[in-house]
Design brief:
single chain; mainly alpha; five-stranded parallel beta sheet; 5 strands; 47% helix; elongated
């Protein structure tokens, strides 16, 4: 299979200046690398990324790709900062902005940030990045078009502005009596291009001219840097199968929320995973004892009460299924286990989810209505029973269940509850 070359580029480099040979994607955000289902030997270049209105790309997302043998490089903007931070783990840095970040002269995301239009409008840049202002001032000083006092005053004027206000108009206004010098700076940026644009263009041409490097595993053993958060992010953003519009976590949620027999599936999963974790085989009672639960209190614990779906379980099985967590004790699921998909194919599960997911642009039901519908769906006789139902379906609590239910068309689910024949 031919290695993929993917570049996350936004306002730093206009589309007409981008060389062929890459899959171009908008500025990277949290989860995007997991979404791609990258393989060993694939190459990713991060130029632009979001960090204010959306969660930014996490370091562990990049580390996860490096561990899989994906070549990840960064330049010009947020990519340069991440490359400087992860150079010791195998991320490649390119360009002068990266060099400044690697040397410790550039540390703040805000120094490379700009205000820009959204992707549908071409991600057009509306303000100037502080790193570009500083670099342009250095070039003007070297050309003796500004003296050191003017350059210092212009840098201070630009630094006083928030990155969202550092437009040409804002810079001229802030410059005050140095307005003519500021006009010279802006003209220089317009005619010669800023350093971020140059770095991005050079990095793309450099990588395009080279063969994709062989897979590497620079981060070393995964246990040295992985965490439950990284595993959760991977699971939440990974497609059910390559190219699927349904995520693996949503596919599991579809089963957890709506499969009548999911409590039994979850019990089987918890028994298997608990045995593997404690290295103890046998009944739920033995597994609970190995985990430190006192046997005397089990039958009378409120957590061990039966519900409509678990009346045929033993008290120990209820307690085990409802308290099970993967080490280090935070997650219940970090993958789609065999028990959750038994008796169905991934294609069938995908189609089931697509039928039940909210249509694009549709509004999710308010959280309170989600709780009401789930309680009815699970035949919970009380608020306490509702909490037990959520736990025995593998949710950490009712809040997690309601959050994941927000992705589904609960109005359709409610109609199917009223008209069960429609489900057939």
């Amino acid at each position: 299979m031919t290695p993929r070359r993917i570049a996350f580029v936004g306002p730093t480099l206009p589309a007409e200046q981008r060389p062929a040979g890459f899959e171009y994607r908008p500025p990277v955000r949290h989860g995007d690398l997991f979404d791609l289902c990258l393989r060993p030997g694939d190459q990713v270049l991060i130029v632009d990324g979001v960090y204010q209105h959306f969660a930014p790309i996490r370091h562990k997302e990049i580390l996860a790709q490096l561990a899989r043998g994906v070549h990840v490089a960064g330049t010009a903007s947020l990519g340069a900062l991440r490359a400087a931070e992860l150079a010791g783990f195998g991320m490649q840095g390119l360009g002068q902005v990266y060099g400044q970040a690697r040397a410790g002269r550039l540390t703040a995301d805000a120094d490379v940030a700009v205000l820009h239009t959204d992707d549908s409008a071409g991600a057009r840049r509306l303000t100037e990045a502080m790193v570009c202002v500083r670099h342009a001032l250095t070039e003007l000083l070297e050309a003796r078009q500004l003296d050191t006092h003017q350059a210092s005053r212009l840098e201070q004027a630009a630094a006083r502005l928030h990155f969202t206000e550092r437009s040409a108009t804002g810079l001229r206004h802030e410059a005050g009596p140095d307005r003519d010098a500021m006009h010279l700076l802006l003209d220089h940026l317009q005619r010669h291009g800023d350093i971020k644009t140059r770095d991005a263009r050079d990095a793309l041409h450099t990588l395009a001219a080279r063969p994709v490097p062989p897979p590497s595993h620079a981060p070393g053993p995964a246990d040295n840097w992985t965490s439950s958060y990284g595993r959760q992010w991977d699971f939440e953003h990974r497609p059910l199968k390559p190219g699927s519009a349904v995520g693996a976590r949503l596919a599991l949620a579809c089963q957890q929320l709506f499969a009548t027999d999911f409590p039994d599936r979850h019990r089987a999963y918890a028994l298997r995973m608990a045995a593997a974790t404690t290295r103890t085989t046998g009944t739920a009672g033995r597994l609970l004892s190995a985990a430190g639960f006192a046997p005397a209190t089990r039958p009378h614990a409120r957590l061990a009460r039966g519900t409509e779906a678990t009346a045929h379980w033993t008290a120990d099985e209820r307690l085990l299924a409802r308290t099970f967590r993967l080490p280090p004790g935070r997650l219940v699921y970090q993958d789609l286990p065999a028990e959750a998909v038994a008796g169905t194919t991934l294609d069938e599960l995908e189609q089931r989810c697509l039928r039940l997911l909210l249509p694009p642009g549709a509004q999710a039901l308010p959280t309170a209505r989600r709780h009401t519908l789930l309680s009815r769906l699970w035949q919970a006789g009380s608020e306490h029973d509702y909490r037990l139902c959520a736990l025995e379906r593998g949710f950490r609590d009712t809040a997690e269940a309601a959050r994941l239910a927000g992705a589904f068309d609960l109005t359709l689910i409610a109609r199917l509850l009223r008209e069960p024949a429609a489900a057939r």
